[in-house]
Amino acid sequence: MIRAYQPSDLDAIYDICVRTAASGGDARGRHSSDRLLGDVWAVPYVIREPEHAHVLDDGTGAAVGYILGTADTPAFVEWYRSEWLPATVDRFAADDPRDTGLLAVHRDPDRMLRPEFAPYPAHLHIDLLPEWQGRGLGRGLMAAFLDGLRAAGVTGVHLGMAAENHGAYAFYRRLGFEDLEIADPGARFVARDTSPLS
């Protein structure tokens, strides 16, 4: 069942994020805390814009997947810089080399601002636990997210993924996302309008 995010889903959001953060695989144990990846890639979205967060519920009330994002990337970046970053930067172990790269990403919210994104002001993150993938459920999450963006008057959305995540790239292409030509050796970017999925 696809439903709206609820605050009681927060721990599940952290868990799903870390268990899918290694190009779709498990990233537990890679940082000083397994919650840090969620603090960068998932939780700020449900805190700031819960209306754009949807979860896949396994039927018992437990979230096993999510889609979340922002309708306005520049406004989200400003909030991240002024509120989220100061509230969370102390969660990272400054002396732990496992956190160095992620902390650099966390401290640089302006990385989300590129001229190529202007026609696609929204952006998203979608993750499902492996056992829930390949069943068409990601498509349902995407449809719910796009519906919410259209209702908010947003006409375009973009996202980035690890360049080596070929499965995710194929999924987005099937849903009508097109390549955005952006020079970034570690990431691949795609975008589409917010029209209903065909």
TrEMBL record:
Q: Read off the SUPFAM superfamilies from this record.
A: Acyl-CoA N-acyltransferases (Nat)
Q: Which residues form the N-acetyltransferase domain?
A: 45-198
Q: Which CDD domains match?
A: NAT_SF
Q: Which domain of life is it from?
A: Bacteria
Which PROSITE patterns does this chain map to?
Answer: GNAT
Q: By its UniProt entry, which Pfam families does this protein fall under? A: Acetyltransf_1
Task: Name it.
Answer: N-acetyltransferase domain-containing protein
Species: Actinoplanes campanulatus
Q: What high-level taxonomic lineage is stated for the organism?
A: Bacteria, Bacillati, Actinomycetota, Actinomycetes, Micromonosporales
